[in-house]
């Protein structure tokens, strides 16, 4: 049965030598030549001197075939496989004090830039560690987790604090796994049929007709729409009008009041029919109105607290202080339309008291008409919020 032959790249000065060594040893072992790297004197005693020399020559030729011309010209005078192997270590992985200090400096200075790839960051970090091991540099493995956590940008402060203060002991491998999982969740985009759907519900109303008041729909967990049944409100009392037979979200007096206030702010009277342009905090139960959307070309500068969307969302690209373009993901609207997610980043919001809050992992959705703050996201990050009596 013919043995399989595996090709590896030629060794040059840009090759990761520690990994190349492992692959080269595997190639020699496949050809039963790995003993040659120990030296002729250390080969098994059952071999004759001629067999030892022949095995050493074969191993030497194999090493030559896997070197670039740049490296080969520096080691071509070596006559044995073990001498060539040691010379390669001196060229590509020097163990001098200067080389060790340089590699340790790379370890401490390695930082993840805001918006850069976490996968690439971890790859370089592991490469530095493997080089230190080849150089036989001693380091405290418990300190590696702190070095890695300190290399993360400010946007990972919540993750870093959670890791540091939630466990009594932590290995660097656990930090690898936690950071990788966190990064996947951070860049998780919303799929059309997933549970993580942003919800915007349109509410049309006629000021003269009670029967044509805004029908609202919401997406349930199976991705299907369901209407609000009028009969289900029998016996319920409107919190605004204090009358039975309907609920606050269906109160035409409240809707007319909202339209009048909106018209007064804009300096014009409301038309006979149109769409609500002021968002009221309605109860989110059994399909009631959660967020009202306007058919207006002007994007609002106000933020809406939304318990129905999974992520913070905004159509304003200029508001993002950090930004990363994404190529997939959509937000499903209440009218079954979909809006494309084009980016993910951080937005800073100045509160009424002057305090600046940071919204991380916000989605840039240019087609949205409103800026949404996800209450579920705030809750998952440990923030608390309360609401009562419609406020």
Overall description:
This protein has eleven helices and twelve strands. It is α+β, with helices and mostly antiparallel strands and 391 residues long. It has four domains: 17-92, no CATH class; 97-186, no CATH class; 200-296, no CATH class; 298-391, Cathepsin D, subunit A, domain 1, CATH 2.40.70. The strands form five sheets. The protein has a four-stranded mixed sheet with strand order 6-11-10-7, with no helix packed on it. A hairpin with a 5-residue loop joins strand 10 and strand 11. Helix 2 (49-65) runs parallel beside helix 4 (81-92) and helix 5 packs antiparallel against helix 6 (118-134). The longest helix has 17 residues, at 49-65. The radius of gyration is 33 Å and the shape is elongated. It starts with 16 loop residues before the first helix and ends in an 11-residue tail after the last helix. The model is unreliable at 189-231 and 268-298 (pLDDT under 50). It holds the Pfam family Retrotran_gag_2. InterPro entries: PolX-like_BBD.
SSE map:
Elements: H1 17-30, H2 49-65, H3 69-75, H4 81-92, H5 97-109, H6 118-134, H7 141-150, H8 157-166, H9 172-186, E1 204-206, E2 218-219, E3 225-226, H10 252-266, E4 273-275, E5 303-306, E6 313-314, E7 320-325, E8 330-332, E9 338-340, E10 343-350, E11 356-364, E12 371-374, H11 375-380
Parallel strand pairs: 5-12, 6-11
Antiparallel strand pairs: 1-4, 2-3, 7-10, 8-9, 10-11
């Amino acid at each position: 049965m013919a043995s399989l032959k595996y090709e590896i790249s030629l060794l040059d000065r840009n090759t990761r030598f520690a990994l190349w060594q492992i692959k080269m040893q595997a190639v020699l072992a496949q050809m039963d030549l790995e003993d040659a790297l120990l030296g002729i004197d250390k080969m098994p005693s059952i071999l004759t001197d001629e067999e030892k020399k022949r095995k050493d020559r074969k191993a030497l030729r194999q090493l030559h075939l896997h070197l670039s011309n740049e490296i080969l010209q520096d080691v071509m005078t070596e006559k044995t496989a073990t001498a060539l192997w040691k010379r390669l270590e001196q060229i590509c992985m020097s163990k001098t004090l200067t080389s060790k200090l340089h590699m340790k400096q790379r370890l401490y200075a390695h930082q993840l830039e805001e918006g850069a790839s976490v996968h690439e960051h971890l790859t370089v970090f592991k490469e530095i560690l493997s080089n230190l091991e080849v150089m036989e540099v001693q380091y405290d493995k418990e300190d590696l987790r702190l070095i890695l956590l300190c290399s993360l940008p400010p946007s990972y402060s919540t993750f870093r604090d959670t890791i540091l203060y939630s466990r009594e002991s932590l290995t660097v491998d656990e930090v690898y796994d936690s950071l990788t999982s966190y990064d996947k969740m951070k860049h998780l985009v919303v799929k059309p049929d997933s549970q993580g759907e942003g919800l915007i519900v349109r509410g049309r109303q006629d000021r003269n007709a009670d029967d044509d008041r805004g029908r609202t729909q919401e997406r349930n967990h199976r991705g299907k729409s369901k209407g609000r049944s009028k009969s289900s409100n029998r016996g319920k009392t409107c919190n605004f009008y204090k009358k039975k037979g309907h609920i606050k979200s269906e109160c035409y007096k409240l809707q007319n009041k909202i339209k009048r206030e909106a018209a007064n702010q804009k300096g014009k009277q409301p038309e006979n029919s149109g769409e609500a342009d002021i968002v009221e905090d309605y109860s989110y139960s059994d399909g009631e109105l959660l967020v009202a959307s306007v058919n207006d070309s002007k994007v609002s500068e106000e933020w809406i607290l939304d318990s129905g969307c999974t992520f913070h969302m905004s159509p304003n690209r200029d508001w993002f202080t950090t930004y990363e373009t994404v190529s997939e993901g959509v937000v499903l609207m209440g009218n079954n339309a979909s809006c494309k997610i084009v980016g993910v980043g951080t937005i800073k919001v100045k509160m009424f008291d002057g305090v600046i809050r940071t919204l991380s992992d916000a989605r840039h959705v240019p087609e949205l008409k409103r800026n949404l703050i996800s209450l579920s996201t705030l809750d998952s990050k440990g923030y608390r919020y309360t609401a009562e009596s419609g406020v």
